[in-house]
Amino acid sequence: MNTAIFFERNIISAESLRSVLDVFPRCTCSHLPTPLEKMENLSKKLGVNLYIKRDDQTGLALGGNKARKLDFIMADALVQGCDSIITWAGLQSNWCRQTVAAARKVGIKPILILFNRPGLPAETDGNLFIDLLFDSEVKIVEMESGKNIMELGEVSSFIEEAAEEERRKGNKPYVAPIGGSMTEGSMTKPLGAISFVNAFLEMRRQAGERNINPDYVVLATGSGSTQAGLTVGAQLVTPQTKVVGISVSDEKTTMGICIETIVGQTFQELGAARAKASEKVTILDDYIAEGYGILNQETARAIRLVAETEGILLDPVYTGRAMVGLLDLIEKGYFEKDDNIVFWHTGGTPALFPYREKILDYLGKSGAAG
Ligand SMILES: *Cc1c(COP(=O)(O)O)cnc(C)c1O
């Protein structure tokens, strides 16, 4: 039973929100807090105030945003007495990599169902390589081209089959949703989003220490709970901070419905009155280009720009794409001159390796090493 605090207005103090969040059990899979840094060189070059929240540095098996979610989700699995975790995603999934590492850390067995889509890198490299290093049980399912994993009806039958097999062996599997986002399977609370309400507070505290007020948070959105959690955090504590999600997969109507659902569940779970209906989730779908995981030249160039100005690595699927969006928004004059913009680095860098040849091709550097 969670606290029954009811917020009469939207704005509550960070301390009261923190005490509400303290009720949720968690493991320490991630290294927190992650740094909030100014991107000095890129800010100068672009004429903006750009900060970066380094959730690529959460520590768990090369880091990423899923580590925060797993702090809560693994604790839930342990509270439920589970001895294995079953989850699913694409072959180069950052979610699956971090889930496997977290499972090993808390001592339960990781089981993955990975869907391989034609046209995306399928080597035993990057995230898949790491999944195998952790000796997780991996089942690979080949998909037909043009299908979206999230819409795949058969997913549930594959998951159910794997769960049944565990139960037959007398084990108790925890079935976790893709990305730790929607309340499905064994996860009955929006724990992924709740971890990002907490992350928003962490960022606010760091921003406060530097005397800055973030006007915008910009991030890559995939399964939606990172954006949902940051949105709830912002709406409760500092509604002047706008959270802008750059979709890397679905168009904004579909993605918007998904995030709105998680936002609603999160407000409810925290015992918080829903923010004003006019405060909609902001999701942009202008940068999906050829589709999820399909690299293009703009993304390769955005990765290089951040690397050469800041010495920071972005990834080819999420953060590189989100940076394409952010650069375009800056160019279009979306932000006011003095706005403080926080780019939330959600990780994903292990996927640089399976994409290396395509990235170098787009940058005109293939064959550079002879
Ligand atoms: C999963 C992921 C995201 C998206 O987070 P969601 O909560 O699924 O929207 C963004 N960036 C990276 C690197 C990720 O692995």
Walk me through what this model shows.
This protein has 370 residues and is an alpha/beta fold. It folds into 2 domains: 14-64 and 190-362, Rossmann fold (3-Layer(aba) Sandwich), CATH 3.40.50.1100; 66-180, Rossmann fold, CATH 3.40.50.1100. 40% of the residues lie in helices and 15% in strands. Strands 1-2-10-7-8-9 form a 6-stranded mixed beta sheet, sandwiched between helices. A 4-stranded parallel beta sheet has the order 5-4-3-6. Helix 4 (94-106) links the parallel strand 3 (84-90) and strand 4. The structure holds pyridoxal-5'-phosphate (PLP).
How would you concisely characterize the structure shown here?
The protein is built from 12 helices and 10 strands. The chain is an alpha/beta fold. A 6-stranded mixed β-sheet has the order 1-2-10-7-8-9, sandwiched between helices. The protein has a 4-stranded parallel β-sheet with strand order 5-4-3-6.
Supply the key terms:
15% strand; Rossmann fold; alpha/beta; globular; 370 residues; 10 strands; binds pyridoxal-5'-phosphate; 6-stranded mixed beta sheet
How far apart the termini lie comes to 62 Å
In CATH's first tier, which class of the largest domain applies? Alpha Beta
Radius of gyration: 20 Å
Please indicate the percent range of residues in DSSP E strands (runs of 2 or more). Answer: 5-15%
Q: What is the third-level CATH name, the topology of the largest domain?
A: Rossmann fold
Structural class: alpha/beta
Bound chemical compounds: pyridoxal-5'-phosphate
Shape: globular
Question: Can you give the helix content as a percent range?
Answer: 40-55%
Overall strand count: 10
Please give the CATH architecture of the largest domain.
3-Layer(aba) Sandwich
Mean pLDDT: 93
Largest sheet: 6 strands, mixed
In terms of per-residue confidence, which ranges show pLDDT below 50 for 5 or more consecutive residues? 1-9
